[in-house]
Amino acid sequence: MSKFDNHPTVRQYREQSTINDSTIASPLDVDWLRSLCLELGADDVGFVEIDRPEIAAQRQDILVAFPPTKTLVSFVCRMNRENVRSLERSIANVEFHTTGDEVNQIAHEIVATLEQKGIRALNPAMSFPMEMDRFPGKIWVVSHKPVAVAAGLGHMGIHRNVIHPKFGNFILLGTILIEAEVTKYNRPIDYNPCLECKLCVVACPVGAIGGDGHFNFSACYTHNYREFMGGFTDWVEDIAESKSAHDYRQKVNGSESASMWQSLAFKSNYKAAYCVAACPAGEDVIGQFLRNKKVFVKEVVRPLQDKKETIYLVPGSDAQNYVARRFPHKKVKQVSNGIRPNSIQGFLFGLPLLFQRNQSVGLDTIYHFTFTGKEKCQATVIIKDKTIQIENSHIGTADIQITADSHTWLQFLAKEQNIVWALIRRKIRIRGSLRLLQAFGKCFPS
User: In this protein, which residues make up the domain named 4Fe-4S ferredoxin-type (predicted)?
Assistant: First the structure.
């Protein structure tokens, strides 16, 4: 490297640099860093060390994205409550997108300021865009919610949103990775702002939130994210399978086509965020609820329940029965969620997310999977008491054993391979009752 010593840029850097390596290596003053984040637009901020147990599950992914990470800066930006509560989806969606853009811009400016001071930092996206080459696996770089909880910015409510003690759940989250340590780190707050009032439960149009704390990811994903990812894939396949314009219009009406166009031309639109809208938690939010609970329900929750709208759900899912029972006035459209794993690990990753617990009633079964071919692995799936457990090896005594060529299994899941033909060719082999395999499939409609 000595050949660069006389290069003008090298000489100028060494002559003019004011960066002191020992200063960079020392912890950053937490008050200075906090003030910087607030001055640049964050409404609250906290700091988490990379080795914190609460974020251990994503530590490796973070270090792959930014190897020198020592500290995670978590911050929140407030949204306007009445916009989020609006029945008009355009108003609520613009609020989400506008605040989301602010989060990304604030993170960008914080990183730029740190960089000017010789401190390396990186700001992953607040939400979209994400790493779609990994879809339908883990497409995000940082899981913002557990970082925010570890940073003392709130706790998760039963609706799976972070509730800030002051701002409630009307917030969006950002995370910044920096190479430096700070002089003091935050700890989780000692209470959960969630009131457990269950208003999010009764407001959800697809029954994704259980009163017992259960969350049906598939129901939320299929409806709320209809114009994202899997829902978009399902729409494209409707186009591909249509024999004519008339045939297409029998599958997708004009309003749906226009909405897809809007999502493509502007930004993807959420079909619902009623769990956020109905939540009364947080010091700045709770007053309206405490003054008159009946009026709060009448003005905030009831309109969301009474709204006439199209609900997107997978046939055979828990959501299908829920909507028919709770919201008979809402129009139902049966769709695919478009989730088709492209790897065996993706298949196993997705099982807990797609599991429909009410379709598993009566099952007490251990499934042993052995995958051969391109992806070799073993796995155990235990379905019992309306719960699911996944293990990356064979454990227990299996009630049914499935041995499958990995490529053939993925084709079967994508409905590109007939299982009877796969059984005849012994690409899939089953030891046990086929009834148990049928019961397994019923738990994961897609």
Answer: 185-214
